[in-house]
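Reminder to self: tokens first, then the designed residues, so the page reads top to bottom the way the pipeline ran.
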């Protein structure tokens, strides 16, 4: 029993490390979206398009190959398409930091659904982690300078907040799919489902579909690679950790995005943002401590 427990603890630690790495990689996404000179939904399409060949090759190496899409995978793809479309418009209209932080207020939704619908056991220490992580994110948002960049910050904030709903639905669908499917299979089918939806949205919204500069194409290719490595790492971890834990740990993503937005775009990152970031990271660390013991009754 001791060996089994130690093996389980080691697997959980590995999953947490992979999850943190994936979240940090995904923190690059809003920067690349800003650098890609095409419409917000179109950028989401190109992210999927450049990721799909790599995901196909990875899925072929898993047991059963690519397999077939099922309802849960289609749901994951539809939710991810909405997530990217709303988030990319949020990034275009408000600051990188606010768009990323608001879109990552997913733990409240995920934890509530996991508890009410899926009957996941929520430990008091984990609830404290949610309060710290989300509270830190809120402090970063409220402390934003009134002169924040963006064409329409209020609308961008609304789009970004709505993204949290779609991201939560994506998280929960991927966790369910990972019970029977490999990470690469899940990523392949959800991306293949999302791509045409994003292309259709781009056309309906009258966006510029293709990047006009080499830098824009490079940013789209970078998003594809980031999608495979970063989002793939998160999908892999979702097969080994509860969705409620995963959704809190990935709150490291907005901290990374806020720092990069400050460095690359001169977005204000004052004492309030630093304090909020520190509190959010404390919540992430506490969530990891709460995740160490297996989620079992008793």
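Designed residues (298 positions):
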């Amino acid at each position: 029993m001791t060996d089994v427990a130690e093996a389980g603890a080691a697997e959980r630690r590995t999953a947490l490390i992979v999850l943190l790495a994936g979240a940090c990689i995904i923190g690059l996404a809003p920067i690349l979206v800003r650098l890609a000179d095409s419409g917000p939904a179109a950028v989401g399409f190109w992210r999927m398009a450049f990721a799909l060949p790599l995901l196909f090759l990875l899925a072929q190496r898993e047991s059963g190959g690519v397999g077939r899409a099922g309802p849960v995978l289609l749901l994951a793809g539809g939710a991810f398409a909405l997530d990217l479309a709303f988030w990319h418009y949020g990034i275009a209209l408000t600051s990188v930091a606010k768009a990323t932080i608001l879109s990552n207020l997913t733990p409240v939704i995920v934890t509530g659904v996991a508890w009410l619908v899926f009957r996941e056991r929520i430990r008091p220490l984990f609830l404290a982690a949610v309060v710290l992580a989300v509270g830190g994110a809120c402090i970063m948002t409220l402390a934003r300078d009134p002169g924040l960049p963006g064409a329409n910050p209020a609308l961008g904030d609304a789009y970004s907040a709505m993204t949290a709903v779609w991201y939560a639905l994506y998280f929960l669908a991927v966790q369910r799919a990972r019970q029977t499917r490999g990470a690469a299979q899940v990523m392949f089918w959800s991306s293949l489902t999302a791509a045409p939806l994003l292309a259709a949205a781009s056309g309906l919204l009258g966006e510029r579909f293709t990047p006009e500069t080499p830098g824009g194409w490079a940013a789209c290719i970078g998003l594809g690679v980031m999608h495979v490595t970063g989002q793939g790492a998160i999908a892999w971890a979702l097969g080994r950790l509860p969705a409620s834990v995963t959704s809190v740990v990935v709150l490291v993503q907005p901290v990374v995005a806020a720092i990069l937005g400050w460095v690359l775009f001169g977005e204000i990152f004052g004492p309030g943002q630093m304090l909020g970031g520190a509190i959010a990271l404390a919540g992430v660390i506490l969530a990891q401590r709460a995740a160490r013991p297996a989620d079992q009754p008793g």
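The CA atoms of residues 31 and 218 lie 12 Å apart.
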